[in-house]
């Protein structure tokens, strides 16, 4: 809650002085026309002043200033800037002292509005007509010509002309400023910067000190939500307050009326309206300190209509910014803003910890109670977290149910997060015991910046989740390099798959007694553009974790089917193609359909294909395995359990499974001749297979000795370098000819 400090209130009461404000706003227009008489004849001064005594021009009195030489006049002109007319003698110190003064006024002082009336005693000293034109001399009269009436007429004409020139000049300057300001204003990003610019530009336009304030009403909010978005001078204390809370009645009421009536108000102080429809509008109050004349009003109208466009841009931009940087539900910074914040904090990372706090099982809450309830849960958590983690902690929503928190080590730590979730939350009358898992990074211990830092926290969070829900884990450099390496590899794999860097090789499987080929195992290969082979043991786990294995697995299956079809066409009708299948594929709901389509599209029968699933897969979720296996069998596939001997199969489970073959892992084949333990496992697998009525195949046979040993155990199928290495499709075809 925003509480207005008492001291500020007092200040505002002081500011609230209507009499003072009104007096200022009603200052009468009583500026006299100032006229300078330059003549070395003292009588001329007296006569002129006497003749013009009591007369007014355009309702304003005349005031005379006196110089008795061109030199004195120069001095006075240097310090007087609102002279309207100079009545100038031509012959003074020198015969053309007056004409030289004209040159000085126009060329050196650059006073172009000041009207000049030349008076001369003798017609003979008349300046040439070009001089009159070049120096914009208003009138040229001999002194004898100038009767009282003539003088008055001449002065009136000069004053009028002066006033018009000033008006034009002001108009030009004003228009220039409007053009300038609307371009500079439309470049401003953010409403308050814009409003501040409007105050400044307006004051410059009206030639007053920056005083006044602006308030904005954006997006048709209710009037109570109108806030002061910019203010200058004596009003600057009002910035960011709701308009309704402004205690200076005159100011508040004028702004309210302006927004209400949707027009500029000039009486009792200038208040300008900037509207864009859709209920979006801004009102600007300017303390002009004088009543505005028609010219000022025209300029202001031009200004308003010019900057309305700029305002609209700014509103759009700030809405975009809002959406890009803020989470509307929790009124917290979002991920983007948080990354910015992290970048800033890195300048001084000492003592700062970043935590990612992930609410456990939040999706269950959403599913069980609905999204609206879920939103309320998040709000409750936000509320408690901001209360408990303290003022100097920055919070953001970085994911659906994940918060980012940044603060001192002592504030942002596993204990403080635990404390937040210790007591149950009451949401919509429900008591809810929540827990959260946390990943933390001490900024000084990570080399990462911005979003990478968030990645480090994510890595730690993932570790924590793997360990135990509700636990926390600090990030360590070792975790990071692993994860970053894997992340890079995954990116490369994704691109590599798209760019056809993946292909399938085939390793023949043989009858161990006769060395006759019975089939082949399809094995995936990845060759990078740099001609580097990445081993499948490295990239397949990544593909599995990322889900990329689904399209890749389909690719392998289709390649294997196509190759099988080819082998059959070449006359190898009994050829059996073995294809490895991952758990992620196995669990995928479209798996059986994918298999069916691959068979259909390639025109091969399922019974020529064997799927290799690992022992650990076979022992996973029994219901799922049975169901999927049933689907596989329906398509006619045979199934082998790969890497057999590495897992912990339960015999009873194994018996339930509809599998055809056990595959002895190459580790046990290679140990076979050297260690008795190895031989025990190989022997055990063969015995188990015999007991269950399954065939047994061995992989990784490298030596003749191993082949004979396996035959001795009763294993009659195998593959390995002894017979052939995995080879590309074309090579397989020629290899088969032999
Ligand atoms: P795996 O299914 O156990 O495949 C047998 C591995 O043993 C293959 O390694 C093969 O090249 C290798 N091998 C064959 N004969 C010998 C031998 O005499 N001596 C030795 N030392 N090794 C031999 P590879 O091709 O590197 O594949 C490694 C693993 O990657 C495979 O183990 C399999 O789990 C996985 N994998 C390969 N291709 C695919 C695939 O298309 N899909 C899936 N899901 N996994 C695959
Ligand atoms: Ca295999
Ligand atoms: Ca294996």
TrEMBL record:
Q: Which residues form the Response regulatory domain?
A: 34-158
Q: Has keyword Mitochondrion?
A: no
What InterPro entries does this protein map onto?
Answer: CheY-like_superfamily, Cyclic-di-GMP_PDE-like, DUF3369, EAL_dom, EAL_sf, GGDEF_dom, Nucleotide_cyclase, Rev_trsase/Diguanyl_cyclase
What are the boundaries of the signal sequence?
none
Offer one Pfam family short name for this entry.
DUF3369
Keywords, sorted A to Z: Phosphoprotein
- PTM sites of type 4-aspartylphosphate: 89
In terms of PROSITE patterns, this protein maps to: EAL, GGDEF, RESPONSE_REGULATORY
SUPFAM superfamilies of this UniProt entry?
CheY-like (SSF52172), EAL domain-like (SSF141868), Nucleotide cyclase (SSF55073)
Keyword presence, Phosphoprotein: yes
List each copy of the EAL domain by range. Answer: 486-738
Where, by residue number, does the polypeptide cross the bilayer? none
The residues covered by the GGDEF domain are: 350-477
Q: Which domain of life is it from?
A: Bacteria
The protein's matches in NCBIfam families, at most eight in alphabetical order, are given as:
GGDEF (TIGR00254)
**What's this protein's name?**
EAL domain-containing protein
Question: Which organism was this protein described from?
Answer: Pelomonas caseinilytica
């Amino acid at each position: 809650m925003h509480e207005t400090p008492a001291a500020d209130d007092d200040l505002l009461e002081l500011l609230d002085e209507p009499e003072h404000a009104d007096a200022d706003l009603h200052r009468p227009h009583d500026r006299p026309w100032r006229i300078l008489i330059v003549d070395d004849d003292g009588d001329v001064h007296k006569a002129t002043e006497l003749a013009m005594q009591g007369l007014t021009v355009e309702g304003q009195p005349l005031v005379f200033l006196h110089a008795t030489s061109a030199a004195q006049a120069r001095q006075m002109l240097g310090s007087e800037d609102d002279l309207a007319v100079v009545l100038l003698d031509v012959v003074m110190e020198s015969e053309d002292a007056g004409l030289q003064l004209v040159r000085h006024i126009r060329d050196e002082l650059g006073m172009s509005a000041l009207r000049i009336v030349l008076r001369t005693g003798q017609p003979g000293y008349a300046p040439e007509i070009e001089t009159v034109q070049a120096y914009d001399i208003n009138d040229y009269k001999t002194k004898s010509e100038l009767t009282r009436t003539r003088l008055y007429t001449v002065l009136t004409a000069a004053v009028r002309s002066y006033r018009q020139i000033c008006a034009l000049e002001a108009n030009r300057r004003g228009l220039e400023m409007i053009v300038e300001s609307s371009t500079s204003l439309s470049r401003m990003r953010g409403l308050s910067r814009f409003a501040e610019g409007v105050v400044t530009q307006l004051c410059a336009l009206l030639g007053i000190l920056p005083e006044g304030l602006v308030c904005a009403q954006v997006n048709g909010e209710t009037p109570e939500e109108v806030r002061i978005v910019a203010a200058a001078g004596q009003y600057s204390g009002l910035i960011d307050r709701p308009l309704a809370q402004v205690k200076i009645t005159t100011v508040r009421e004028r702004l309210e009326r302006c927004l209400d009536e949707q027009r500029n108000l000039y009486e009792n102080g200038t208040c300008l309206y900037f509207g864009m429809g859709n209920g979006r509008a801004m009102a600007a109050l300017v303390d002009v300190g004088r009543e505005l004349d028609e010219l000022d009003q025209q300029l202001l109208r031009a200004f308003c209509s010019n900057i309305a466009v700029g305002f609209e841009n700014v509103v759009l931009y700030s809405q975009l910014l809002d959406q890009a940087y803020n989470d509307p539900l929790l009124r917290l910074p979002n991920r983007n803003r948080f990354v910015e914040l992290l970048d800033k904090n890195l300048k001084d990372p000492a003592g700062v910890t970043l935590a990612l706090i992930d609410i456990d099982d939040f999706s269950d809450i959403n599913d069980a109670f609905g999204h609206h309830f879920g939103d309320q849960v998040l709000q409750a958590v936000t509320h408690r977290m901001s209360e408990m983690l303290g003022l100097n902690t920055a919070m953001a929503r970085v994911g659906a149910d994940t918060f980012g928190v940044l603060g001192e080590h002592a504030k942002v730590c596993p204990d403080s997060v635990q404390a937040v979730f210790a007591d149950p939350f009451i949401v919509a009358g429900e008591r809810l015991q929540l827990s959260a898992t946390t990943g933390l990074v001490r900024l000084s211990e990570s080399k990462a910046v911005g979003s990478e830092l968030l990645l480090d926290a994510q890595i730690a969070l993932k570790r924590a989740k793997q360990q135990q829900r509700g636990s926390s884990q600090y990030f360590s450099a070792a975790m990071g390099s692993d994860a970053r390496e894997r992340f890079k590899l995954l990116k490369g794999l994704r691109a590599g798959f798209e760019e056809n860097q993946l292909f399938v090789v085939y390793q023949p499987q043989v009858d161990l007694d006769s060395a006759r080929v019975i089939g082949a195992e399809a094995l995936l290969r990845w060759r990078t553009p740099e001609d580097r082979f990445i081993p499948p043991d490295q990239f397949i786990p990544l593909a599995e974790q990322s889900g990329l294995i689904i399209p890749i697995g389909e690719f392998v299956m289709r390649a294997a089917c196509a190759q099988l079809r080819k082998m059959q066409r070449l006359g190898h009708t009994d050829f059996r193609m073995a294809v490895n299948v991952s758990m992620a594929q196995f669990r995928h709901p479209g798996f059986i359909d994918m298999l069916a389509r691959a068979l259909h599209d390639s025109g091969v029968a399922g019974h020529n294909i064997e799927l290799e699933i690992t022992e650990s897969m076979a022992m996973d979720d029994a219901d799922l395995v049975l169901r999927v296996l049933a689907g596989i069998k329906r398509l006619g596939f045979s199934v082998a359990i790969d890497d057999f001997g590495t897992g912990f199969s339960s015999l009873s489970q194994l018996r339930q499974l509809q599998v055809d073959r056990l595959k002895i892992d190459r580790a046990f084949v290679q140990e076979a001749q050297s260690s008795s333990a190895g031989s025990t496992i190989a022997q055990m697998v063969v015995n188990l297979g015999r007991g269950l009525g399954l065939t047994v195949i061995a992989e990784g046979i490298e030596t003749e000795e191993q082949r004979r040993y396996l035959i001795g155990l009763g294993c009659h199928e195998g593959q390995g370098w002894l017979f052939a290495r995995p080879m590309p499709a074309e090579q397989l075809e020629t290899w088969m000819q032999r």
